Amino acid sequence: MSLFPIDIEDDARRIVWAFAERGLMISTAESCTGGLIVGALTDISGSSAVVDRGFITYTNEAKMDLLGVNAATLKAYGAVSEQTALQMVQGALFRSRADIAIAVTGIAGPGGGSAEKPVGLVHIAARSRAGTILHREMRYGDIGRNEVRLATLRTAFEMLIEVAGV
């Protein structure tokens, strides 16, 4: 029995099986999801053939230390930005043995939002060693912390499938 909703469990299973079949490995870099992406993947039996590592980088310092996010990027654009998500995914890919990485940074709420960066704003980036790079800016709205985080997982899984071409 999974800790996750059935659709997320099904997507995680699809990713694990498809990536294992193709010999692909994944790394994750997570901020607002706090490890839920790698948790959903590792909830699937056989995921050790697919999941290399997960970076949980909730603070700016962790983003810089573990993923190599540039301090100037954080200062100019903030932690919740396309630029930061792209640097996070690059760091996760190049500081792992993974073929494909996914990164998320956002504001899950209930607080922490602003007019410019409201609760429910999430930036998700995926990148492959083959050169494919995706970015999506999602505005889920103030739908609740858990709902924002679960919606982020769904989008992240869609992007992993798209980058891998499975």
From TrEMBL:
Q: Which E.C. number(s) belong to this protein? A: 3.5.1.42
Enumerate the spans annotated as CinA C-terminal domain.
Answer: 13-162
What InterPro entries does the annotation carry?
CinA-like_C, CinA_C
Segments spanning the bilayer are none
**Key words, A-Z:** Hydrolase
- Which GO molecular function annotations are given, in alphabetical order? nicotinamide-nucleotide amidase activity
**Pfam families from the xrefs?**
CinA (PF02464)
Instruction: Enumerate the SUPFAM superfamilies for this protein.
Output: CinA-like (SSF142433)
Superkingdom as given in the UniProt entry: Bacteria
| Official protein name in the record | Nicotinamide-nucleotide amidase
Q: Does the keyword Hydrolase apply?
A: yes
